[in-house]
Amino acid sequence: MADFSQLPVYANLVDRVHALPSIGRKTADKIAYHIIEMSDQDVERLVQAIQDAHQRIHRCSVCGNYTDKDVCSICSDPSRDASTICVVTRPRDIIPFDKSRELNCKFHVLHGLLSPMEGITPDMLTIDQLINRIKNGDVKEVIMATDPSVSGEATAMFISKLIKPLGVRVTRLGYGISIGTDLQYADTMTISRSIQYRNEL
Ligand SMILES: [Zn+2]
Predict the structure, then answer these.
(1) Is 62 domain-assigned?
(2) How far does the centroid of ligand 1 lie from the alpha carbon of residue 34, in Å?
(3) Are 175 and 100 in a shared domain?
(4) Helix/strand/coil for 199
(5) Are residues 10 and 97 in the same domain?
(6) pLDDT tens, 52-66?
(7) Which of the four pLDDT bands, split at 50, 70 and 90, describes residue 72?
(8) CA of 122 relative to ligand 1 center, distance in Å
């Protein structure tokens, strides 16, 4: 063996770290090297933290947001306006909308966008659960806050056609959000404006 980095057990660690998002091979190698030099106790803490988060955090049974309870803190908050549901692509998208304080509403997480190319069909998203929420609740408006992308638009249109007959107002984020924006990183002002200038679908 030429050097330790050729060891299969080391190469495997680098591969696992490299498989994480935003981590190139060089960074993966740095992290793997650091892990080798960590104390046994620190490694145990890291492994435990990963396992705990992975096992305890799951989808809210109502809206699909991530939570460590059966129902998330947004769904169980009685001070929130249940007549408006803001529909987002993924749980992390709730964060900027909530921070903007423009809305004090409930949310619904689709866990993806429709994409015939990638084989993502309506039954793979939480559309049925959304329809049930509208049918069983006093929902007046649904704001489609899916990604400003081709799939995001197509998904918003698809859902809009399904829920309009249920007698709810359906709106889409307006002014300020440009195509391709990663909503998670959009600033509060942009998010607030896009909500204020939302359009009817
Ligand atoms: Zn929830």
Answers:
(1) no
(2) 38
(3) yes
(4) strand
(5) no
(6) 999 999 999 999 999
(7) very high
(8) 20
Find, among 85, 145, 144, 158, the residue nearest to 115 by Cα.
Answer: 158
In a domain, residue 66? The reply is no
Question: How far is C-alpha 21 from the chain's CA centre?
Answer: 15
Task: Give residue 170 CA to ligand 1 midpoint distance, Å.
Answer: 20
Distance CA(120)–CA(124), nearest Å, equals 6
In which domain, by residue range, is 153 found?
72-200
Q: How far is the CA of 89 from the centre of ligand 1 (A)?
A: 14
68 CA to centre of ligand 1 in angstroms: 11
Phi, psi of 64 (to 5 degrees): 90, -5
Name, of 30-39, 90-99, 184-193, the range with top average pLDDT: 30-39
In a domain, 196, yes or no: yes
Distance (Å) of CA 101 to CA 18, 98, 107, 172: 37, 6, 13, 18
The domain that holds 82 is classified in CATH as 3.40.1360.10
- Report CA(62)–ligand 1 centroid distance (Å): 5
> What Rg value do the Cα atoms of the chain yield, rounded?
21
What's the whole-model pTM score? 0.81
**35 and 117 together in one domain:** no
pLDDT at 61: 96
Query: How many separate domains does the chain show?
Result: 2
Query: What φ, ψ does residue 82 adopt, rounded to 5°?
Result: -80, -5
Q: Under a CB-based contact definition with an 8 Å cutoff, are residues 146 and 87 in contact? A: yes
